Amino acid sequence: ECYVQNTAREYAKIYAAEAEPLEGFGEVPEIIPIFLVHRPANNIPYATVEEELVGEFVKYSVRDGKEVNFLRRDSEAGQKCCTFQHWVYEKTSGSLLVTDLQGVGMKLTDVGIATLAKGYKGFKGNCSISFIEQFRALHQCNKYCEMLGLKSLRTTHQKQRKATSMKSKNLPNSSTIKKTVPKKAREPRDFISSDH
Protein backbone atom coordinates (compact mmCIF):
# COMPACT_ATOMS: atom_id res chain seq x y z
CA GLU A 1 0.00 0.00 0.00
CA CYS A 2 2.78 2.44 0.92
CA TYR A 3 4.87 1.48 -2.12
CA VAL A 4 1.94 1.95 -4.54
CA GLN A 5 0.76 5.27 -3.11
CA ASN A 6 4.23 6.75 -2.78
CA THR A 7 5.12 5.64 -6.33
CA ALA A 8 1.96 7.35 -7.61
CA ARG A 9 2.94 10.40 -5.54
CA GLU A 10 6.27 10.65 -7.38
CA TYR A 11 4.43 10.66 -10.74
CA ALA A 12 2.09 13.33 -9.39
CA LYS A 13 5.07 15.54 -8.47
CA ILE A 14 6.47 15.34 -12.02
CA TYR A 15 2.98 16.01 -13.44
CA ALA A 16 2.68 19.09 -11.19
CA ALA A 17 6.07 20.39 -12.35
CA GLU A 18 4.86 20.24 -15.98
CA ALA A 19 1.30 21.46 -15.42
CA GLU A 20 1.58 24.26 -12.84
CA PRO A 21 3.66 26.63 -15.04
CA LEU A 22 1.05 26.46 -17.84
CA GLU A 23 -1.05 29.60 -18.04
CA GLY A 24 -4.57 28.93 -16.76
CA PHE A 25 -3.90 25.40 -15.50
CA GLY A 26 -4.06 26.34 -11.80
CA GLU A 27 -3.86 23.95 -8.86
CA VAL A 28 -2.74 20.38 -9.51
CA PRO A 29 -3.89 17.20 -7.70
CA GLU A 30 -1.52 16.00 -5.00
CA ILE A 31 -1.27 12.42 -3.75
CA ILE A 32 -0.56 12.62 -0.04
CA PRO A 33 2.30 10.55 1.41
CA ILE A 34 1.62 7.42 3.43
CA PHE A 35 4.03 6.05 6.02
CA LEU A 36 4.55 2.58 7.46
CA VAL A 37 4.96 2.61 11.24
CA HIS A 38 6.46 -0.27 13.23
CA ARG A 39 4.91 -0.81 16.69
CA PRO A 40 6.66 -3.90 18.13
CA ALA A 41 4.73 -3.89 21.44
CA ASN A 42 1.33 -3.91 19.70
CA ASN A 43 -0.69 -7.00 18.65
CA ILE A 44 -0.63 -5.60 15.12
CA PRO A 45 3.01 -4.53 14.78
CA TYR A 46 2.63 -2.48 11.57
CA ALA A 47 0.28 0.35 10.67
CA THR A 48 0.05 3.02 8.01
CA VAL A 49 -0.27 6.69 8.84
CA GLU A 50 -1.28 9.58 6.61
CA GLU A 51 -2.69 13.08 6.79
CA GLU A 52 -6.38 13.28 7.71
CA LEU A 53 -8.46 14.69 4.87
CA VAL A 54 -11.38 16.80 6.07
CA GLY A 55 -14.28 17.60 3.77
CA GLU A 56 -16.37 15.82 1.13
CA PHE A 57 -14.61 12.62 0.05
CA VAL A 58 -15.05 12.02 -3.69
CA LYS A 59 -14.05 9.09 -5.92
CA TYR A 60 -12.81 10.72 -9.13
CA SER A 61 -12.03 7.38 -10.77
CA VAL A 62 -12.68 3.85 -9.64
CA ARG A 63 -10.45 0.81 -10.05
CA ASP A 64 -12.42 -0.72 -12.89
CA GLY A 65 -12.95 2.53 -14.80
CA LYS A 66 -16.62 1.77 -15.51
CA GLU A 67 -18.35 4.13 -13.10
CA VAL A 68 -19.48 7.44 -14.58
CA ASN A 69 -19.19 9.98 -11.80
CA PHE A 70 -20.54 13.47 -12.47
CA LEU A 71 -18.29 14.96 -9.78
CA ARG A 72 -15.37 13.46 -11.66
CA ARG A 73 -16.47 14.58 -15.09
CA ASP A 74 -17.76 18.04 -14.22
CA SER A 75 -15.48 19.24 -11.42
CA GLU A 76 -12.09 20.87 -11.91
CA ALA A 77 -10.46 18.33 -9.57
CA GLY A 78 -12.10 15.45 -11.44
CA GLN A 79 -10.99 16.70 -14.85
CA LYS A 80 -7.44 17.25 -13.61
CA CYS A 81 -7.38 13.72 -12.14
CA CYS A 82 -8.44 12.31 -15.52
CA THR A 83 -5.72 14.39 -17.18
CA PHE A 84 -3.18 13.07 -14.65
CA GLN A 85 -4.17 9.50 -15.59
CA HIS A 86 -3.78 10.33 -19.30
CA TRP A 87 -0.42 12.01 -18.65
CA VAL A 88 0.96 8.96 -16.75
CA TYR A 89 -0.40 6.61 -19.41
CA GLU A 90 1.35 8.60 -22.16
CA LYS A 91 4.63 9.07 -20.22
CA THR A 92 4.89 5.32 -19.65
CA SER A 93 3.91 4.44 -23.24
CA GLY A 94 0.69 2.82 -22.00
CA SER A 95 2.50 0.53 -19.54
CA LEU A 96 1.28 2.08 -16.28
CA LEU A 97 -1.91 3.79 -15.09
CA VAL A 98 -2.63 5.46 -11.75
CA THR A 99 -6.23 4.67 -10.92
CA ASP A 100 -8.76 4.67 -8.07
CA LEU A 101 -8.16 8.41 -7.61
CA GLN A 102 -10.11 9.67 -4.62
CA GLY A 103 -9.87 12.25 -1.90
CA VAL A 104 -10.93 15.72 -0.82
CA GLY A 105 -10.53 18.47 -3.39
CA MET A 106 -7.06 18.22 -4.90
CA LYS A 107 -5.66 16.00 -2.11
CA LEU A 108 -5.80 12.32 -3.07
CA THR A 109 -5.27 9.09 -1.14
CA ASP A 110 -5.64 5.31 -1.38
CA VAL A 111 -4.82 5.18 -5.09
CA GLY A 112 -4.14 2.09 -7.18
CA ILE A 113 -1.72 1.38 -10.00
CA ALA A 114 -2.27 -0.94 -12.96
CA THR A 115 0.66 -2.13 -15.06
CA LEU A 116 1.02 -4.40 -18.03
CA ALA A 117 1.51 -8.06 -17.08
CA LYS A 118 5.32 -7.78 -17.17
CA GLY A 119 5.21 -4.67 -14.97
CA TYR A 120 6.89 -1.36 -15.72
CA LYS A 121 10.61 -0.81 -15.03
CA GLY A 122 10.55 -3.51 -12.34
CA PHE A 123 7.34 -2.23 -10.72
CA LYS A 124 4.14 -4.28 -10.65
CA GLY A 125 0.89 -2.56 -9.72
CA ASN A 126 -1.93 -3.74 -7.49
CA CYS A 127 -4.69 -3.53 -10.14
CA SER A 128 -5.50 -5.68 -13.17
CA ILE A 129 -4.25 -4.87 -16.67
CA SER A 130 -7.94 -4.61 -17.66
CA PHE A 131 -8.03 -1.18 -15.98
CA ILE A 132 -5.52 0.06 -18.55
CA GLU A 133 -7.62 -1.34 -21.39
CA GLN A 134 -10.81 0.20 -19.98
CA PHE A 135 -9.11 3.56 -19.47
CA ARG A 136 -7.88 3.54 -23.07
CA ALA A 137 -11.40 2.80 -24.32
CA LEU A 138 -13.35 5.15 -22.01
CA HIS A 139 -11.14 8.21 -21.41
CA GLN A 140 -12.46 11.46 -22.83
CA CYS A 141 -9.90 14.24 -23.16
CA ASN A 142 -10.70 17.61 -21.59
CA LYS A 143 -9.19 21.09 -21.76
CA TYR A 144 -6.39 20.13 -19.34
CA CYS A 145 -5.32 17.24 -21.59
CA GLU A 146 -5.17 19.76 -24.45
CA MET A 147 -3.16 22.26 -22.35
CA LEU A 148 -0.55 19.55 -21.72
CA GLY A 149 -0.52 18.57 -25.41
CA LEU A 150 -1.55 14.97 -24.70
CA LYS A 151 -2.44 12.80 -27.70
CA SER A 152 -6.06 11.74 -28.02
CA LEU A 153 -6.58 8.12 -27.07
CA ARG A 154 -9.63 7.95 -29.35
CA THR A 155 -7.46 8.49 -32.43
CA THR A 156 -4.91 5.88 -31.31
CA HIS A 157 -7.64 3.35 -30.42
CA GLN A 158 -9.47 3.95 -33.71
CA LYS A 159 -6.23 3.55 -35.72
CA GLN A 160 -5.53 0.23 -33.99
CA ARG A 161 -9.06 -1.01 -34.76
CA LYS A 162 -8.80 0.16 -38.38
CA ALA A 163 -5.44 -1.59 -38.84
CA THR A 164 -6.92 -4.81 -37.42
CA SER A 165 -9.92 -4.67 -39.78
CA MET A 166 -7.63 -3.94 -42.76
CA LYS A 167 -5.48 -6.99 -41.91
CA SER A 168 -8.53 -9.23 -41.84
CA LYS A 169 -9.68 -7.86 -45.23
CA ASN A 170 -6.28 -8.67 -46.78
CA LEU A 171 -6.37 -12.31 -45.70
CA PRO A 172 -7.19 -14.76 -48.47
CA ASN A 173 -10.65 -16.24 -48.22
CA SER A 174 -11.08 -19.93 -47.58
CA SER A 175 -11.96 -20.73 -51.22
CA THR A 176 -8.49 -19.62 -52.44
CA ILE A 177 -6.58 -21.82 -49.98
CA LYS A 178 -5.68 -25.27 -51.27
CA LYS A 179 -6.55 -27.90 -48.70
CA THR A 180 -4.06 -30.76 -48.49
CA VAL A 181 -5.19 -32.55 -45.33
CA PRO A 182 -6.53 -36.06 -46.08
CA LYS A 183 -10.20 -36.56 -45.16
CA LYS A 184 -9.56 -39.24 -42.55
CA ALA A 185 -7.02 -37.00 -40.74
CA ARG A 186 -9.65 -34.33 -40.14
CA GLU A 187 -11.39 -34.53 -36.81
CA PRO A 188 -13.90 -32.21 -35.19
CA ARG A 189 -12.24 -29.68 -32.93
CA ASP A 190 -13.43 -27.99 -29.81
CA PHE A 191 -13.14 -24.24 -30.03
CA ILE A 192 -12.92 -22.02 -27.02
CA SER A 193 -14.70 -18.74 -27.48
CA SER A 194 -13.01 -15.57 -26.34
CA ASP A 195 -14.45 -12.22 -25.30
CA HIS A 196 -11.58 -10.32 -26.96
UniProtKB/TrEMBL annotation:
Instruction: Show the GO cellular component annotation of the record.
Output: basolateral plasma membrane
Q: Where is this region: Disordered?
A: 156-196
- Spell out the Polar residues composition-biased ranges: 165-178
- What would be one Pfam family of this protein? Alpha_kinase
Q: Might you give the EC number(s) for this enzyme?
A: 2.7.11.1
InterPro entries referenced in this protein's UniProt entry, alphabetically: a-kinase_dom, Kinase-like_dom_sf
- Where in this chain does the record put each Alpha-type protein kinase domain? 1-153
Name the UniProt key words of this record, in alphabetical order. Answer: Cell membrane, Disulfide bond, Immunoglobulin domain, Kinase, Membrane, Repeat, Serine/threonine-protein kinase, Transferase
Q: Which SUPFAM superfamilies match?
A: Protein kinase-like (PK-like) (SSF56112)
Q: Name one GO molecular function term.
A: protein serine/threonine kinase activity
Comp. bias intervals (Basic and acidic residues) = 184-196
Major location category of this protein:
membrane
Q: Where in the cell is it found?
A: Basolateral cell membrane
**Top-level division of the source organism's lineage:** Eukaryota
The portions of this protein that span the membrane are none
Which reaction does this chain catalyze? L-seryl-[protein] + ATP = O-phospho-L-seryl-[protein] + ADP + H(+); L-threonyl-[protein] + ATP = O-phospho-L-threonyl-[protein] + ADP + H(+)
Role according to the record: Protein kinase that recognizes phosphorylation sites in which the surrounding peptides have an alpha-helical conformation. Regulates cardiac development and cardiomyocyte differentiation by negatively regulating Wnt/beta-catenin signaling.
Family designation:
Belongs to the protein kinase superfamily. Alpha-type protein kinase family. ALPK subfamily.
Protein's UniProt name: Alpha-protein kinase 2
Species this chain originates from: Corythaeola cristata (Great blue turaco)
* Gene that produces this protein: Alpk2
